[in-house]
Amino acid sequence: MSLKTSLGLASALAIVAASGSYAQSPSGTVTIATVNNGDMIRMQGLTADFNAQYPDITLEWVTLEENVLRQRVTQDVATRGGQFDVMTIGTYEVPIWGANGWLVSLNDLPDEWNADDLLPAIRDGLTVDGELYAAPFYGESSMVMYRTDLMEAAGLEMPDAPSWEFIREAAAAMTDGDVYGICLRGKAGWGENMAFLSAMANSFGARWFDMDWNAQFDSPEWLETVTFYNDLMTNYGPPGAANNGFNENLTLFQQGRCGMWIDATVAASFVTNPADSTVADSVGFALAPDNDLGRRGNWLWAWSLAVPAGSQSTDAAKAFIAWATSSDYTALVAENEGWANVPPGTRTSLYENADYLAAAPFAEMTLQSINSANPTEPSVQEVPYTGVQFVAIPEFAGFATEVGQEFANMLAGQQTVEQALERAQAVTTDAMEAAGY
Amino acid sequence: MSTKASRVTARLMLAPAVILLLGWMLVPLTMTVVFSFQRYLPMRGGFQGWVGFDNYRSFVTSSAFWPSVQATLIIVGSVLIITVALGVLLAVLLDQPMWGQGIVRILVIAPFFVMPTVSALVWKNMFMDPVNGLFSHLWRLFGATPVSWLSEASMPSIVLIVSWQWLPFATLILLTAIQSLDSEQQEAAEMDGAGPINRFFFITLPHLSRAITIVLLIQTIFLLAIFAEIFVTTQGAFGTRTLTYLIYQRVLESQNVGLGSAGGVYAIILANIVALFLMRIVGKNLDR
Predict the structure, then answer these.
(1) How far is A28 from A26, CA to CA, in rounded Å?
(2) Is CATH 3.40.190.10 the right assignment for the domain spanning A141-298+376-434?
(3) Chain B nearest C-alpha distance from A291 (Å)
(4) What domains are defined for chain B?
(5) pLDDT tier at A21 (50, 70, 90 boundaries)?
(6) Which residues, including other chains, have CB under 8 Å from residue B79's CB and lie 6 or more apart?
(7) Residue range A80-108: average pLDDT?
(8) ipTM for this prediction
(9) Strand A135-147, strand A300-306: pairing
(10) In chain A, which residue's Cα lies nearest the Cα of B251?
(11) What does the mean pLDDT of chain A come to?
């Protein structure tokens, strides 16, 4: 045997050996696009644990602000750019991208990952035709957060499941000088005021579209919803509410300027944290309000991890997702940062964990809120779409933002409720025509 | 005097720059024009056939189009008036000999070096915020109710921010023009009994007319495309959606590349009309 052939044989053997080990333990570089919020930054700090289990996988992080992230990953996935192996996306993107065949199915994650442990509402929101296309990292709904001391002073008691009428009464009773009875989102944007208003409209029996995809802003239900919202905010809301989004309202609530605030359940841990909040010891929680029609005004959202179809290292990416969204990861965060800081809202087992329930007074209400959201039947009327506070079609982000601007104009007093609804109807009809419905 | 060989060499030497410039300009322009005749929706699988002038028609007939053209013209017009008027005044002031002239000039020019996003953020959060902003504190100091500037007076607020940014540019150009003004002429006028106001209107201002047209021309071209200030402050709400912002919404928020490209072509046409118009004025002025 010549030197040449023996060398060739040796390298062939080496390749066989290498590919053999590849089948057992995935390797390669995984590029992760993620959003710059606290839970995700925490995850980056804990990757040593992942690398201890998978020494052959290198993780590269691209951390971006929410809007920028959305643009970057959308462009990448639509053009099959293949820049990222793991993308952080929400419940709005998953049904659209999954249906387009842009995501890799996660049905084959290992059994110990335990897909049956996921909260059913969240799991349904991430499943298209029986295929799970993304693994939830944390989930949220919305609920009422209120000041127990102010409620007491007003001589009222917040029920666990209040009605909109009660919210109006309580807001009126709590408004006094520097304290505004209620803070709600007013800033224009599909993920800002329209998330709140769409969810609120569901509880008033309204819907975005009828079964033929005709916009419904000319319906009496929308008129009722928007009139109620406008009156509530004009009479009992903070000044400049048309520019207030999640962060602005969080600041106001933490400064003790809001009697009630209806917003994301993740805010509960911020308003009860004594380091940031001046009212940490007097916050109560209740389900989002309803009108006795069978739907509450709460939404459902989950930041989730998905593998785009263009990825070159699918196996390594799946290994990472299985690690980051497992209950072991939750335990790891609890061990390092305490139970109150674990990513909430994805698994049933977390809400059966006595340590977590003891550390998070808002856990019960969060779970109930998430479970009461129904993305497949958001309204009491029949709808052709899925999604509670959004409509899972690609054009939604565009026209909902424009509609949101009309309602923000209304809240700023530049147009009436009727004018806003009329323009919203025109904008949506235009956009749907352009989209070919 | 050039020989044939040197002309060829010159052309060869110029070629890379010319090709680069043409590529830089023509490739995106051609792509925009091509996209504008397509039904192109990236979120629905990309190219979906040729549609002729449909995109052009629906862009113009959309309820958002005319208000956006109006908003664009209002912003450009108001900023031009404010920057030129204040720019002339500042230039005259800065031309006066005074102590610390160099530092004052640098300070006046400084806003031009602040990035548009940054200056918009500073204005939005530090000055115009209805709860924590400087203006709201001032208003409260005098017992008034703070104004939420960006929603109640959105257009004036944006005009204010943009004018603040472009004022230094106008001042700078006009100041250099004033410095070229012959001081003997001024003195002569003074000796003939012309007061400061007369001297300003009959000597300084005519002398500045060329510089003013240049300022108008350059600023118009840039102001037609302002985006960051609107994106950061109102996101196009409260009637501040300009044509540029509308195109952004169509392409990126609605993910409709065809429709947005048609809007882009309209914007190019509009900018060219304005530029041609201004060029003729400048040409006339320069001929004098």
Answers:
(1) 7
(2) yes
(3) 30
(4) 65-240 (1.10.3720.10)
(5) very low
(6) B159, B162, B163, B166, B219, B223
(7) 91
(8) 0.72
(9) antiparallel
(10) A398
(11) 88
Report the alpha-carbon distance of residue B147 to residue B153 in Å, rounded: 8
CA distance A393 to chain B (A): 9
> Where does residue B53 rank: exposed (0-12), middle (13-18), buried (19+ CB within 10 A)?
exposed
| CB nearest A188 (choices: B43, B63, B237) | B237
d(CA B209, CA B287): 12
Element (H, E) at A128: strand A127-128
Q: Residue A67: which residues within 8 A CB-CB, separation 6 or more?
A: none
Cβ count near B286 (within 10 Å): 10
C-alpha distances out from residue B278 to B88, B173, B212, B216, B264, Å: 20, 17, 12, 8, 21
* Structure confidence by residue, pLDDT tens digits, A342-376: 898 999 999 999 999 998 888 989 999 999 888 88
Length of chain A: 437
Residue B139 to residue B144: CA distance in whole angstroms: 5
Backbone angles phi, psi at B73, to 5 degrees: -65, -40
- Chain B residue with CA closest to A426: the answer is B63
For A430, the closest of B62, B235, B249 (CB atoms) is: B62
Domain A28-133+301-359: homologous superfamily in CATH: Periplasmic binding protein-like II (3.40.190.10)
Looking at residue A273, its pLDDT comes to 85
- Write out the E strands in A129-257: 131-132, 135-147, 180-183
Q: What angle do CA B189, B195, B197 make, to 5 degrees?
A: 110
Interface of B with A (CB under 8 A): 39, 41-46, 58, 62-64, 129-131, 145-146, 148, 150-152, 235-239, 241, 249-250, 252-256, 259
- Select the residue from B154, B254, B261 to test the A interface by mutation, using most A Cβ atoms within 10 A: B254
Tallying the residues shown for chain B, one arrives at 288
> How many Å apart are CA A91 and CA A137, to the nearest integer?
11
Of A324, A322, A364, A287, the closest CA to residue A138 belongs to A324
Where along chain A do the CATH 3.40.190.10 domains lie?
28-133+301-359, 141-298+376-434
The single residue listed with the structure tokens 């079964």 is A211
A423 touches chain B (CB under 8 A): yes
Distance from CA of B259 to the nearest CA of A (A): 9
Which of B31, B253, B259 to mutate: most A Cβ within 10 Å?
A: B253
Size of interface A-B (CB pairs under 8 A): 98
